[in-house]
Every structure is written in structure tokens, then in C-alpha cells.
Design brief:
Length: 303
């Protein structure tokens, strides 16, 4: 009988390093929102991948950056919490950005937070630089920290991801599987649906309301015909933001709803009826309940 293995793998790095893209590539399904905006991943989203007899549970942490607000502090604390709980840590860095001050800060913190946990270096977006630059960057990073292994990949195109997956499958501890074989995420579908809608809003609104909104799934009704009715609320922090989210004649929220509904239908493989409302909650960034919805600890944001 084949010995099963299972373990948690934390993805850490600066915002936009490609953690969510790598997670989705490894799992083979979209479980973490991917945008060109920084700090889009708020909760520690677990994606589950099978490789042979090994089950690899990825923890996609928020990008680590210099926190200014309560939400920022909660996100950074969650990121390091995800690393501390893992069996293996993957430190992602963008090949074309190199060893930035932010990346150096994460390496410095790894010495404190990693302990005896193996840390592998994953240099992402290798298609953007020349081979000699990659070699130089790898040498510089390995001189700065004693990484267990170094992998060079393109998470978007899948280059090198197979080698990384094989290594992880062999490295996670011997253990019974932690989740059913066909499960891709341990997030409730209500939260995945909210994240999908928030991604569409982020892409549509660009810089107008960067991080002053959140989406919550208020109601989920399973219909007799196999479809689902999903009611969501978009909370914004200021009255002026409501008009931006709605758009002229409601065109923005309508387009967001259509895009989110199409993705939900594809993700779930059945009909979905999505209804969106926009409400002003000026202090939502200071409400413990909103943090709970995002899988964050409100107390972690205390200065």
C-alpha cells in the first residue's frame, strides 16, 4: 500500500510576486483572486493539490508590506501566521525586480519566523530576464539566506511548476490526507463567491477606490432546479464611493455582476443568479465582523 503524505505549504512574498497565480496554477482551479493591484489577497486562502499519493495544502498569505492601517496590520500578521503554521515555506520573488528592500525585509524576518521549517526560494517570472541575471540573483539571494532549494518558474505559463510540485510532494510529511480528494479549497463557497466579485470590482475600478471596499455574501439559496441564488453586498467606506461603484445608470455594478456571475457559473458548473447591492458603511475598516468575514483577526490590527 502506498504511503500517503499531506502537509501545508505557505506562499510568502511581496505584493504582486505571483503567489495567487502560482496557487491557481498548482491547484488547477481559481481559488485565489489574481489582479495587478497589490494587497488583493486578504484572507489566508487554502488551495488543495494532489500529486501522486501526496496532498499539498497551499496557504496563500497576503503580500507582506509596510503596514499603515489596521487592515494592513491584520493582513501582515496573518501572512506570518500562515508561515509559522506551515510544513514548508515558499518565498516568491520576481526575477525582474530582484532583491528589493521589501524582499530583504522578508528575508530578515524569515530568520525569526521560519525556525526549523524548510524554506525554498522560488524565483518567478523568469521569462522577463536573461539567464545570467537569473544566476546572479539566485547567488545573491542564497548568500542572504540558507534556502533549502531554489526553483526558477513562470507561474503564469507553468514553466518549472512541475518540478516544484514533485519536490513538495516528496517533502510533505507522511500523513493521512487532510481533505477529500476532490476538494480544491477549504474556503466556504460563500467566501469564494465574494472574492470573485471583489476581483471584478478591483479590475473595473482601477485606482478610484483601491482598498476601501469589501464584498460579503449575505444570502445563499439552493433552488430546486439545481441553480443557486446568491445575494451579495458591496460595502464602501464613503458616500461618494457608492456612485463610483454603481456607475452611470448602474452600468459599472451591472458589468461587475455579469462578469462575476459568469465566473461563478464556470467555477460551480451550474446556473447561478447573482444579485448585488451597494451600501455605505463608513467605519467598516474598524468593524471586527468585517474582518471575520475576510478570515482575519481584528485584534491583529492593534498598533
Amino acid at each position: 500500500m502506498t504511503e500517503t503524505r499531506a502537509g501545508f505549504v505557505a506562499l510568502i512574498g511581496e505584493p504582486n510576486a505571483g503567489k495567487s497565480t502560482l496557487l491557481n496554477q498548482m491547484v488547477g482551479a481559481k481559488v485565489s483572486i489574481v489582479t495587478h493591484k497589490v494587497q488583493t489577497t486578504r484572507a489566508r486562502i487554502r488551495g488543495i493539490a494532489m500529486e501522486g499519493a501526496s496532498q499539498i495544502v497551499f496557504v496563500d498569505t497576503p503580500g507582506i508590506f509596510r503596514p499603515r492601517r489596521r487592515l494592513d496590520r491584520s493582513m501582515v500578521k496573518a501572512a506570518w501566521g500562515g508561515a509559522a503554521d506551515a510544513d514548508i515555506i515558499l518565498f516568491l520573488i520576481e526575477a525582474h525586480r530582484g532583491l528589493t528592500d521589501g524582499a530583504q525585509s522578508i528575508i530578515d524576518n524569515l530568520r525569526e519566523h521560519a525556525g526549523k521549517t524548510p524554506v525554498a526560494l522560488v524565483i518567478n517570472k523568469i521569462d522577463r530576464v536573461k539567464a545570467e541575471q537569473l544566476l546572479e540573483l539566485s547567488q545573491k539571494l542564497n548568500a542572504a539566506f540558507e534556502f533549502t532549494r531554489t526553483f526558477m518558474i513562470s507561474a503564469e505559463k507553468g514553466y518549472g511548476c512541475g518540478d516544484l510540485m514533485e519536490w513538495l510532494a516528496a517533502e510533505v510529511p507522511e500523513s493521512p490526507w487532510l481533505y477529500p480528494e476532490d476538494q480544491v479549497a477549504d474556503l466556504p463557497m460563500r467566501m469564494i463567491a465574494a472574492e470573485i466579485t471583489r476581483e471584478k470590482l478591483t479590475l473595473r475600478l482601477h485606482e478610484e477606490i483601491p482598498y476601501q471596499l469589501t464584498v460579503e455574501t449575505e444570502a445563499w439559496e439552493e433552488k430546486k432546479d439545481g441553480s443557486a441564488r446568491v445575494d451579495q453586498v458591496v460595502y464602501v467606506a464613503r458616500p461618494g464611493h457608492k456612485g463610483i461603484v454603481l456607475g452611470k445608470g448602474g452600468e459599472t455594478i451591472k458589468a461587475v455582476g455579469q462578469a462575476a456571475r459568469a465566473e461563478l457559473i464556470e467555477f460551480m458548473g451550474r446556473p447561478v443568479h447573482l444579485f448585488l447591492q451597494v451600501k455605505v458603511r463608513e467605519n467598516w475598516l474598524d468593524e471586527a465582523e468585517r474582518y471575520n468575514e475576510m478570515g482575519l483577526d481584528f485584534r491583529d490590527g492593534d498598533a
